[in-house]
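In this notation, each integer encodes one residue's backbone shape. One such record reads:

___
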Amino acid sequence: MEDQASGLRNMTVPDRETARAPGRLRCIAIGSGKGGVGKTMLSVGLATSLARLNHKVLVMDADLGLANVDLQMGVDPTYTLQDVIFGSCRLEDAVLHVEKGLSVLAAAAGSPELVDMGDARRQVFVADLIRFAGQYDFLIIDSSAGIGRGVTTFLGAAPEVLVVVANEPTSLMDAYSLIKVLRQNTPPPEIMMVVNMVRTLDEGELLASRLNGITKRFLGADIPVAGVIVHDPVVGDAIRARTSVVNYASRSGPSQCLQELAQFIAAGECYARARGRLQKPFFDKLAEIGMNPEGLAKE
């Protein structure tokens, strides 16, 4: 399959030994303006691919309305994020180890407690997460779709955000709306886009150009493209089999695209830009949410 890097980016992809994350834990939130664009598939596939590059990765399901990371990773959690928040178990007991280097903190669907809980519980949870996540190279946060406060709270706090967009008008405009909201944060996160569910890499590049035409015109912003994921029915087969497409069909087009995306992320170009601009690391900002839940979220 043609390397999507040609025409999307100019950089050298590191090998497995040099692809270590810079110095400290990296927190990457994945969001989308619209549901149904493959956000969770991408979160799981990216995390699996990073683990294959010998990184330690923790996936946290922050989609508290329609949580399904555990389903797509093939695990059946005894405890969830909500159990940790309300003191039913320790954070260590809720984290499931899926495979070498890859763990998940699942959430219970239809439970918005992380957003609506009191300040005391939120601060305790953040403190536990800070302590526990330090053993990982990457924290991948799979957020809800949309631009509501519960979504932008996590996305606005993360140093790096991947916005997923598909080739349909509603996805394009909703992705623009999400980018607009995130750029209202001070400072804004380092935003990159991932184009998903396109027939070819050229179609993905064209879609990225269309979105950037809108963001340049109305926001004065050029959003870099982290990767393009081509569509293949094997993705649906992998979801039904409750596993990442990277494990289910490693030679398929989507799997190769996800692995290239992981190599690009591991190279740290977006992290270097974010680190140079951000005044506070992710956990400091997340702790602020515990004391002032409205502080980082704008409707």
About this structure: Residues 4-23, 276-280, 290-299 have pLDDT under 50 and may be disordered. The chain is about 45% helix and 15% strand.
